[in-house]
Amino acid sequence: MLKQKTIQVKVGNDLLIGDPSHIVIQTMCNTHTNDIDATLAQCRQLAASGAELIRITVPGMKDVPCIGEIHDTLRAEGIATPLVADIHFSSETAIAVASIVEKVRINPGNFHPDHEEAKARFAKLVSVCKAHGTAIRIGLNHGSLGKYITELYGNTPLAMAKAAMEWLALCDENDFHNVVVSLKSSNTVVMVEAYRILQKLMQEAGCVYPLHLGVTEAGNGDSGRIKSCVGISALLSQGIGNTIRVSLTEDPAAELPVAAFLADRYGGKSKSSLISCTTKDRVAYAEYSSPDRTTLMLDAACDFGRALLDREIDDVVFSGNYIADNGESVDIAESGFGSYLQDEILQAARRRFYKPEYIACPGCGRTMYNLQEAFETVKRRTSHLKGMVIAVMGCIVNGPGEMADADWGYVGEGNGKVSIYKKNVPILRHIPESEAVDRLLELIDAEVRQ
Ligand code: SF4
């Protein structure tokens, strides 16, 4: 049985996750780990931009010495930001890297198809982490749960939370408590529900582990920021969550200001620019006076995301003003920004769809093509497909599993080739990148005409 009341996880010498006064912000490199110079350069930039934890993918054993060199070089330069090794399937790689970095992120259910064997491998990793003072993140994304748990509970928020509880119990049996959990989904409703169930289950068990929050594959630009804020703020506003990553299909440094905004707001260091709000017939009428466009957008997503997700309101209408880059005051309603914001926030909360729903991973060291460019092209060419869910994923190893409820998937294979998926089934493989969007559109057109 779980024993302790609350847990604080120590990552490296100085960082605590679970400190009620501090929400830790983190991001992930999108360089190839074996390109040591590029990864080092990105780590330096991210540490200087405020990342408190930096995650680096370790696809296989050959990458273990690379992350070791990156770690040692950063420490020699006086950069103490803890590193998290991102492992997807290989327990051997997780065990090998656990003595090198400060934290390891794994999904133990993927260690082996046989559940008992997966448990044995996880127990081995736990013993190595315990010996070296290494923290673990159990990261169970929607769509990448093991067969064992989905057979019991389906691919549901409850399954995500139940799986987490089982792995936490195994940590407890081994008297290991340096564990953080994440239950991410690109669907804000699923993500919020999964974390809430897990929080309740942990409270009932008498032991609350810190939670890492994130809306995975949120996309980019305004939509990615709004979707992340809607999902993450719904939980932080209820006191759930201790560390956050805002996943954007952009330069990882671009994630940090959004994460810092959320950490400041829910750490009590900043306030919303909302000046008044009334509700009539389940529609909120919100007036803002914001210092800039981005603050308005993030404030509005945080102020109304949870109420929309929880169906306390059905709509929100914006008025007031924000200050543009040229110093002029912009009327939110007259400029049209208010209705755009309304559409974006309602779509992020999955209450009304005014354009396609895009799922795009942020990319990492496993990405073998220009993901950001491909995503922009797919968005431009499919913008008319209102309500359709289209995924653009960085790698063929994890992308198909992680795009969960997408109608169509565009998945980079590497070597200039792309696979097209319909739901979770590959329809076309090895398509040259130059033709892939045309082929995707042909398939969608053919289906629409049927
Ligand atoms: S799906 Fe994207 S973020 Fe996930 S492992 Fe593949 S490239 Fe990296």
How would you describe this protein?
Helices cover 41% and strands 21% of the residues. The protein has 450 residues and is of the alpha/beta class. It has three domains: 258 residues, TIM Barrel; 75 residues, no CATH class; 93 residues, 2-Layer Sandwich (Sulfite Reductase Hemoprotein, domain 1). The strands form four sheets. The protein has an eight-stranded parallel sheet with strand order 8-7-6-5-4-3-10-9. Strands 15-16-17-18-19 form a five-stranded mixed sheet, with helices on one face. A four-stranded mixed sheet has the order 11-12-13-14, with helices on one face. Helix 1 packs across helix 2, helix 5 crosses helix 6 and helix 10 packs across helix 11. The longest helix is centred in the first third of the chain and has 18 residues. The model has no long low-confidence stretch (mean pLDDT 94). The protein binds iron/sulfur cluster.
Topology, pairings included?
Elements: E1 9-11, E2 15-17, E3 24-28, H1 36-48, E4 53-57, H2 64-76, E5 83-86, H3 91-97, E6 103-106, H4 115-132, E7 135-139, H5 147-153, H6 157-173, E8 179-182, H7 188-205, E9 212-213, H8 221-236, E10 243-244, H9 255-266, E11 274-280, E12 283-290, H10 293-309, E13 315-323, E14 329-331, H11 337-348, E15 357-360, H12 371-382, E16 389-393, H13 399-402, E17 408-414, E18 417-422, E19 425-432, H14 433-449
Parallel strand pairs: 3-4, 3-10, 4-5, 5-6, 6-7, 7-8, 9-10, 12-13, 15-16, 16-17
Antiparallel strand pairs: 1-2, 11-12, 13-14, 17-18, 18-19
Helix pairs in contact: 1-2, 3-4, 5-6, 6-7, 7-8, 8-10, 8-11, 10-11
